[in-house]
Amino acid sequence: xxxxxxxxxxxxxxxxxxxxxxxxxxxxxxxxxxxxxxxxxxxxxxxxxxxxxxxxxxxxxxxxxxxxxxxxxxxxxxxxxxxxxxxxxxxxxxxxxxxxxxxxxxxxxxxxxxxxxxxxxxxxxxxxxxxxxxxxxxxxxxxxxxxxxxxxxxxxxxxxxxxxxxxxxxxxxxxxxxxxxxxxxxxxxxxxxxxxxxxxxxxxxxxxxxxxxxxxxxxxxxxxxxxxxxxxxxxxxxxxxxxxxxxxxxxxxxxxxxxxxxxxxxxxxxxxxxxxxxxxxxxxxxxxxxxxxxxxxxxxxxxxxxxxxxxxxxxxxxxxxxxxxxxxxxxxxxxxxxxxxxxxxxxxxxxxxxxxxxxx
Length: 360
Ligand code: NAD
Hints:
This protein has helices at about 50-70, 95-105, 120-125, 140-145, 150-165, 185-195, 205-215, 270-275, 285, 290-300, 305-330, 330-345, 350-360, and strands spanning about 1-5, 15-20, 25-35, 40, 45, 80-85, 110, 175-180, 200, 220, 235, 255, 280.
C-alpha cells in the first residue's frame, strides 16, 4: 500500500487519506474524504480507466460526494470510495477481489465498502472473505443485499417531488428519459412505468437493454439521442459527467433528476441549468437511497418501514433545496453543498438540528 501525493490535484479537497495498491492481482485506489460524522462508507467501482490520473480524479470526486450525501441524508457516516482499475467484463478475478479485501482491511475500518458500478453483491461477498468492512452482503436474505432498488426508490421519490414542485403534478403521463439501465436504471424504469410515466431508455450494453425491453413497455433510443430526447425529465443513471457545458444546451427536459454520481461535468453547469430554466435535483441528494439502505443493513435495524420512511425524507430535503435556490436565485447544487457542509463541518448541535430539519 502506498500513500499517493495529491496536494495540488484539482479534485483534492482536504481528503483525510488516499492510498494506492499495485500488485500482479490488483491496481486500486481508496480515498477517505471525511470521517467527521462516522466511518467513511462508499462503494467499490471497477472501471477500465485510461490512466491512473483518471482513476484518481474519479475516486477523489466520488469520495467527496459520499461525505455530502451521508451528511444531507442524516446518517452518522463519513465519505469514502474505492476504485479498481480494470474492465469488469474481462479483468475481474477472484484473486483480485481477495486482494481488494486485504487492501480495505489494512485501513482497519476507516473505510467500509459496498457494491457500485462494475461490482456486484457476489463480488463484495468475495471481498468480505478478507475483511469485515463490507456492506450490502450481510445476510442478504434478511437484509436484502444489493442497495440498487432502494437507490432507485429514492430517485423515484425525488422525481415525484421535482414534478410536484415544478408542475404541481404526479408522474402519470410524465415522459422520462433514462440514460443507463443497469442496476439502478432498470429498477427506476420499472417503478416509473408502474406510476404511469412514459419511459425512454438508452444503454451501451445490449443485454441490459434487452432485459428492460423484454419486461417493460419502454421506448429505446440511441445513446446519442437520450440527452436531447423530447421528454419532461432527464434521468442520468450511467456514469458521471453526463451534463456538461456542451450537452446542457441539448437538454429539452424541464427537470434533470437521476442516480449517477457527479452528473455535472463541472460545478458551473449548475448555473447553466438554472439559466436555462431546468430544475436540477442534486445527484448526491436524490441518489442517497442506497447509502440509507446500507446504513440500516450495517446497524442491523433494517425493516422496510424504517428504510422507506428515511428514504421518503429525500423528497423533503429536495423541496427545501428547490425553494432556497429559487428564493436566492442560485443553482440547486450550491444550496445543497452549503446545507451538507453545515452538517459535516459543524458535527454537533447545529448538525443535529439541521438533520432533523431535513428529515422531519
Ligand atoms: P451499472 O453499471 O449497473 O449501470 C450503469 C449502466 O449505464 C450500464 O448498463 C452501462 O452499460 C450504462 N452506460 C454506461 N455508459 C453509458 C452511456 N454513455 N450511455 C448510456 N448508457 C451507458 O451502475 P449502477 O449501479 O446502476 O449505478 C448507476 C449510477 O448510479 C452510477 O453513477 C453509480 O455511481 C450511481 N449510484 C449507484 C448506486 C447503487 O445503489 N447502485 C447508488 C448511488 C449512486
